[in-house]
Request: fold
Amino acid sequence: MSSAAYPGLEGRTVVVTGAGGGQGAAEARLLADAGARVVATDVSDAAPAQLAGIEYRRLDVTDESAWAALATWLAEERAGEPLRGLVNNAGITHRTRLGETSREDWDRVIAVNLTGPMLGMQALAPLMADGSSIVNIGSSAGLNAHYPVAYTTSKWGLRGLSHVAATELGRRGIRVNLVHPGFIETPMTAEAPEAMREAQLALTPLERLGAAEEVARIVAFLLSDASSYLTGAEIPVDGGATSSAGAKLMSDRIAGR
Ligand SMILES: NC(=O)c1ccc[n+]([C@@H]2O[C@H](COP(=O)([O-])OP(=O)(O)OC[C@H]3O[C@@H](n4cnc5c(N)ncnc54)[C@H](O)[C@@H]3O)[C@@H](O)[C@H]2O)c1
Reply:
């Protein structure tokens, strides 16, 4: 991967959460290929095989003390080399509806998907230099009324958090942007109901599901200097589904397709 595609990334230290699989692993690999010094993190003790050659540390994003330990390690081990990027990618889903979601499941999803990125930004933004970039991974569920209530609510909340962070950190030259993946083929969606997959295709102008690498390329763009005047933005990477907002389905029905 030529670093020209993602200017400025070469040699920069970037932390990626939930990098053990799916989109996070694709992001860690692409960023490393672009020359970034990636610190990949996830909940397993051992580094996942697909992160071979990439530095790995255990980090549960809901654990405040783990974030503090990561910040200390970065400050001590990487002295003189400021942190330049954070990808709050870790996330879990729980596909239950409003009437059937337990308080425990609600709290778990909010803790990982919403509190995790908040703790991450609190812990690591102080280490960041002017020109740094934070990318939060939302979801098209944060732009519509996707039925899994805790997941959808957590991603809508992440939008508010990201806009506050972009406003607050802008004066230090730190950018904060949000990426909203649509239906991406990863372990998270492998167990999704077949009807969800079919409905997604019917709602998606590009008429296909997405690949993790297609999200990773947008994340790398947002971490690089190619997006140096972009902050507080929300970028759907969903084949046009949220833009179309159901109109494709109606249009196809009317056309008899
Ligand atoms: N796959 C999709 O269609 C899709 C769509 C929209 C948004 N997203 C979002 O993209 C991100 C990545 O999802 P994915 O599809 O790669 O999912 P995935 O399940 O394949 O990977 C998620 C990773 O997060 C890790 N993780 C879970 N809980 C954690 C915790 N407490 N601390 C640290 N790591 C933790 C998991 O171990 C896993 O490696 C998530 O935020 C997800 O909500 C995914």
About this structure: The beta strands are 13-16, 37-42, 55-58, 83-88, 128-137, 175-181, 184-185, 210-211, 234-237. Residues 3-254 form a domain with the Rossmann fold fold (CATH 3.40.50.720). The chain has nine helices and nine strands. The mean pLDDT is 97.
